[in-house]
Amino acid sequence: MPANGSRLWKRTLLLASVLAGLVFVAVVEYCDPAFSKVAMAEIGAALEDPLTLFAERSPGGRGARALISIKPIKGPHERVLSTVRERPHVIPPGLDSFVFAAAPEAVASIPMIPPQYDTQPVDRIFGPPPFAFFPGGIPPGLVPGAPPSTPIFPPTGPDVPPIIVGPPPPGTPVPPSVPETPPPVTIVLPEPATLATMILGLFAIGLRRRVRK
Amino acid sequence: MPGIVRSLVLITVGCLAGVLLGLTLHKRAQSPAAPQAVTTLSIPAPPLEARIWYSAHNYSQLSLPGGRKEVVRSVLNITKPMHFGSFVWDEDRIPKGPVWVRIDLSRQLLSVFRSGHEIGSAVILYGMDRKPTPTGSFTILEKNPDYYSHSYDAPMPYMLRLTNDGVAIHGSNVREGRASHGCIGIPLDFARLLFAAASKGDLVVILPA
Predict the structure, then answer these.
(1) What's the pTM?
(2) Fewest CB atoms less than 10 Å from the CB: which of A122, B18, B139, B207?
(3) Do residues B198 and B143 make contact, with C-beta atoms less than 8 angstroms apart?
């Protein structure tokens, strides 16, 4: 069958089917109204079910994306030095009975940790924390090696010997100082085999250029 | 063989198209007449385009948590998707009666029903994942038109309290991409209308997301 004839045949078939459908509806409607009304009611009910209507009007579900809260975030607006306070106050061995006296004014002059360093341990900024020397023994409430409840400033009072900061009195045994080890320096050098290959390659490039000339 | 199959497919498609076309034309021919749905209440039928009415012997039903069902006599005829901040309120010629609220978190919609007729619908905001809105059946415990939350330092206008731990329906700035800390946020004007229509003890149903 030629192409035009085939196309015409398909169009005719399609048109005939559409007309058949229309005729079917007309016959059903005008010959049996009860059937059509029931059918229409059922189709209408399916299309107008409340849940279907709600789905049509819905903007959709809320996706998993960044959401802005409609209420302000309530909470403290200042950061506390929680990490510093939780850091254990470790006294190097041999130093728990040797402390230096500190004067109140000198203690008061010890700077507070600036906010930008509040997450770093104290001894990384200012060195080891100062120790107080108590010739009569460590007053109660201040346990060596334990994190101080009120850090930096030991308790004072009439029964507590004064604390003085400064050089130790003559004759006081000097605690061994912790030697500072310099940070390891890393020098990056290629391995000998790598270096040899690199040099060989450069020679080969030069030789090839000579041969071309 | 393929030619026969193609022909059969053509015939089927054609017939279906004809049937649908016929039904559509028939429905359009019948539409100017009064709606077939008639309510049991003696009120004149509102304009057809305002709401969809269900027939008296074939009312629709909505399932609630716990197996309970609520009869629906009519719903608002909203054919297009609603956007954030929009709402529809139509209580014209709807009789007084019990009010209940249906909140669908999955569709972000709130619907208000009175005497089985939907009188209002709005897009909502609800709780974020770390502060989810509880689901289930609740009753309105308290009404306060000018409540202020001290927990969150924020106003909650036209507040309808649902739980004792602070979950409520209240007016809010409903915008896409926003979420609450558990409350149901609705547009302010809609909240005012809902506040006037609802009473303490009315049922509020929250369906999960």
Answers:
(1) 0.49
(2) B139
(3) yes
Please name which of B183, B30, B66, B87 lies closest in space to residue A41, comparing C-alpha atoms. Answer: B30
B90/B167 same-domain check:
yes
Number of H-type helices and E-type strands within chain A: 6, 1
- Measured between its terminal Cα atoms, the distance across chain A in Å is 74
Residues B102 and B18 grouped into a single domain: no
- How many percent of chain A have pLDDT more than 70? 31
- Summarised one tens digit per residue, pLDDT across range B150-169 is 877 889 999 999 999 889 99
Q: Is B79 in Cβ contact with A57 (below 8 Å)?
A: yes
**What letter would DSSP give residue B39?**
-
pLDDT of residue B185: 95
Token pair in block for residue A198: 């690199």
B140 and B77 assigned to the same domain: yes
Pick out chain B residues at pLDDT < 70.
Answer: 1-2, 27-49
Interface test with B, best of A7, A27, A58, A71 (most B CBs within 10 A): A71
Structure token digits, residue A55: 């789905």
Task: Tell me the C-alpha distance between B51 and A40, whole Å.
Answer: 19
Asked whether B132 and B105 are in contact (CB, 8 A), the reply is: no
Domain boundaries, chain A: 3-56, 84-168
Shared domain for B61 and B13, answered yes or no, is: no
Residue A140 dihedral angles phi and psi, to the nearest 5°: -65, 145
B115 or A191, higher pLDDT: B115
Query: Which residues of chain A are within 8 Å of residue B18 when distances are taken between CB atoms?
Result: 17-25
Q: Which residues of A touch B125 (CB under 8 A)?
A: 70
**What span, in angstroms and rounded, lies between the C-alpha atoms of A29 and A36?**
6
Nearest to A62 by CA among B168, B84, B63: B84
DSSP state letters, B122-174 = EE-B-B-TTSPPP-EEEE--EEEEEEEETTTTEEEEEEEE-STTS-EEEE---
Q: pLDDT higher for A129 or A93?
A: A93
Is B205 buried (19+), middle (13-18) or exposed (0-12) by CB count in 10 A? Answer: buried
Same domain, residue pair B105 and B165: yes
Among B14, B72, B152, the residue with its CB nearest the CB of A14 is B14
For residue B20, the enclosing domain spans: 1-33
